[in-house]
Write a structure and sequence with these properties.
The chain has 668 residues and is α/β, with parallel strands linked by helices. Helix content is 43%, strand content 17%. It is built from 28 helices and 22 strands. Strands 3-4-2-1-5-6 form a six-stranded mixed beta sheet, covered by helices on one side. A six-stranded parallel beta sheet has the order 9-8-12-13-7-14. Strand 1 and strand 2 (81-85) form a beta hairpin. The longest helix is centred in the N-terminal third of the chain and has 36 residues, at 6-41. The chain binds adenosine-5'-triphosphate. Adenosine-5'-triphosphate binds at residues 157-158, 169, 172-174, 177, 193, 195-201, 474, 477, 508-509, 615, 617, 645.
Length: 668
């Protein structure tokens, strides 16, 4: 057997990369040419626009980022070799040069093992530095070689310093993650994973996978990603475009229900009641109470004719529409259509002619019909219904005290002038869902789902009624007052009670020493979740006690300055109330700092309020006074758990007050 020439092999792979990039450029060139000639070939303006949009998207999808590798792996089967990469690249004759990572064949790249080689004799992983192919690593599965998580290339990827927004993980998706990424479109799944186990990554890659497999269907119905706040959405926003997916909607739950501006704030108690699932029933009852039993016939003068519908058939129409279980607004339209239908029949009978559309429209608007409808099935707007309930929340589902807590003391002059809070907007969305059907997305990914209130979950349920869900979260990171203690409850509110709950346990972010510290908090959080096992043996943890009379902020600055000696991002995470002060200290010390939502900043230091740290990660995290973070809110210990698990490489905990007791008790 000839000796394996490593250099020649590397040179051949580089050559293939160069040729693949050139082929991709030609594919893009062709798409661009089609885009520019689209106008001339399309028969009419509409087709031209459709075609133009399609081609513009195609051009975007074929964008090549020279700093990311076009392929990252190679599969060798007995009869053929395939390179696996971010998207399909074909040569001029249509032969594949790079297989999309989502193609069925590519699956073996993630799943083949010595036990189940799936026909793969050798799996090759490539190492890259800024888009330049620098190394490769082979696993000869047919000779019993398998690296698993000890792959050097995987380790380098996990341990690389974090700069800028989140990146995709296509090159290193792990088998337990791949199982979730490639789950069927019809399957709703809930992923319970400790911090840094790749939940967000899995959710985003699943969206990309489903879009690849069900392109036309999902393009029509849409894919939605729901995240906790705009800083988080900014952080993840580059992942899907890097995978060629440019048309996924990303929103916070607040964005979804933002039918009106927020112009009021609620006290905590009333917020909590408004997010309680009983409010859905309170609203439903208040709405359907509006329907009255018809007590008078309808008589309509129509030229020389007079039409009459008796009370009895009117009652039947209303009863029937009620029983059909339709949204209120749809039911109202039905009642109207049926009343007009009866008038039409009378007219046909008497005149012998079938009246036309204009007549039907006129009958739907004549005063006796309008009055009838307003009396028995009145028109309602979502905001008017919510306002009504808040002005008079009498309902035996709520205690007298709860009713008082949400009651508006003064009626606004008009619905338009009413000032609604963020929680009211969730109620308004619920009311809108009672009135009309919401359009459903084909697939919805919800991140940090442990914090969804029952009413927020229902808002998402309305948007995924005919689609499936990927729910990602960690019960231990629940910080909202209504945070879930059991995924079954959330899944029931989301309308997917049978979704399977799957754990992820291998941690890719947080070093073992830091995980060990954070895990000490778990028993105090009273949730039943599996602990993470960190893949990272590197990393550093330092607890920095500050003497009683010393300056805590100054000591914190020393830690930040020391952190800047290392490569990567630095986050100073503190109780929300300390953030402005710390930012001012940094500025005074000549250290440029940015806010967490500023993903394009040149600054290396971010000052992050504890309340927005969720989902984010930084190489070095300096935590300022944990006791204040814990004291700031009801679920402060959960918040601290979130804060401690943001560190990729190093964590410094600077404290003057005693550390929370749970943290100082070593794990059993
Ligand atoms: N298979 C993988 N290969 C390389 N890196 C990975 C892999 N899986 C996850 N990571 C990286 O680990 C980090 C944590 O991933 P991610 O943010 O998805 O975790 P998470 O479970 O959502 O965490 P949290 O609960 O703290 O929000 C990210 O930097 C991600 O890119």
């Amino acid at each position: 057997m000839p000796a394996f020439d490593l250099d020649a092999e590397l040179a051949a792979e580089r050559q293939h990369l160069t040729e693949s990039r050139a082929a991709l450029a030609r594919m893009r060139g062709r798409a661009e040419a089609l885009y520019f000639t689209g106008d001339q070939v399309a028969g009419d303006a509409y087709t031209a626009e459709q075609l133009g949009r399609h081609m513009a998207r195609r051009v975007l999808e074929l964008a090549d980022d020279p700093t990311t590798p076009l392929f990252f792996g190679r599969l060798e089967f007995e009869e053929a070799k395939y390179h696996v990469g971010r998207r399909h690249v074909t040569d001029d004759s249509g032969e594949p040069m790079v297989l999309d990572w989502r193609a069925p064949l590519s699956r073996s790249f993630y799943r083949a093992s010595v036990r189940d080689p799936q026909g793969v004799s050798t799996r090759r992983r490539f190492g890259f530095v800024k888009g330049v192919l620098t190394s490769f690593e082979d696993e000869h599965l047919d000779r019993g070689e398998e690296l698993g998580t000890s792959s050097r290339i995987l380790t380098a990827e996990i341990e690389r310093p974090r700069v800028g927004p989140m990146r995709d993980i296509v090159a290193t998706i792990q088998p337990e993650q791949d199982e979730l990424v490639r789950a069927d479109l019809a399957d709703s799944i809930c992923v319970q994973g400790a911090p840094g186990t790749g939940k967000t990554a899995v959710g985003l890659h699943r969206a990309a996978f489903l879009l690849y497999l069900h392109r036309e269907r999902l393009r029509r119905s849409g894919v939605l990603i729901v995240g906790p706040n705009t800083a988080f959405l900014g952080y993840i926003s580059a992942v899907l475009p890097a995978l060629g997916e440019v048309e996924v909607k990303q929103a916070t739950v607040d964005d979804l229900v933002a039918r009106l501006p927020v112009r009021a704030t609620d006290p905590e108690k009333s917020t909590n009641i408004k997010h309680d699932v009983r409010m859905s029933e309170v609203l439903r009852k208040a709405l359907w109470r509006k329907i009255a039993k018809p007590s008078q016939p309808i008589t309509v003068s129509d030229g020389s004719y007079r039409w009459r519908i008796d009370t009895e058939p009117l009652r039947r129409i209303v009863d029937e529409a009620r029983r059909e279980g339709l949204p209120y607004g749809v039911g109202r339209d039905r009642v109207l259509a049926r009343v007009v239908g009866l008038l039409q029949r009378q007219s046909e009978y008497r005149t012998g002619n079938s009246p036309g559309e204009p007549w039907l429209r006129r009958m739907a608007k004549v005063a006796p019909v309008k009055e009838f409808l307003e009396t028995v099935w009145p028109a309602v707007t979502p905001e008017a219904l919510v306002m009504e309930v808040l002005l008079d929340p009498a309902d035996d589902l709520l205690t007298a005290e709860e009713q008082e807590a949400i009651r508006w003391s003064k009626a606004p002059k008009t619905v338009k002038s009413a000032k609604f809070s963020a929680a009211d907007l969730v109620l308004i969305d619920e009311a809108a869902g009672l009135l009309e059907r919401e359009t459903s997305f084909g697939h919805v990914v919800v991140d940090e789902a442990q914090d969804l209130s029952p009413m927020q979950a229902r808002a998402i349920a309305r948007r995924s009624e005919h689609g499936s869900l990927t729910l990602l979260g960690d019960l231990a990171q629940g910080t909202a007052p209504w945070a879930a203690a059991d995924w079954r409850d959330t899944l029931a509110h989301l309308g997917k009670p049978d979704a399977s709950v799957v754990p992820l346990t291998i941690g890719f972010r947080v070093p073992a020493a830091v995980v060990e510290l954070a895990n000490r908090l778990l028993p105090a959080l009273r949730v039943d979740v599996p602990e993470a096992v960190s893949l990272r043996r590197d990393g550093d943890l330092s607890i920095v006690p500050v003497a009683e009379h010393a300056d805590l902020d100054a000591e914190t600055l020393v830690e930040v300055t020391a952190a800047l000696e290392h490569e990567g991002s630095v986050a100073l995470i503190a109780a929300d109330t300390a953030v402005d002060r710390l930012r001012a200290h940094l500025t005074a010390a000549g250290i440029e700092s940015a806010t967490p939502d500023d993903v394009d900043t040149e600054a290396r230091v971010f000052v992050v309020p504890a309340s927005v740290a969720k989902g984010l990660e930084y190489d070095h995290v300096v935590v300022h006074e944990p006791a204040d973070i814990v004291a700031a809110e009801q679920r402060g210990l959960n918040r601290l758990y979130v804060v401690l698990t943001r560190a990729v490489s190093r964590l410094s905990v600077v404290h003057q007050k005693p550390l929370p007791e749970a943290l100082t008790t070593a794990a059993a």
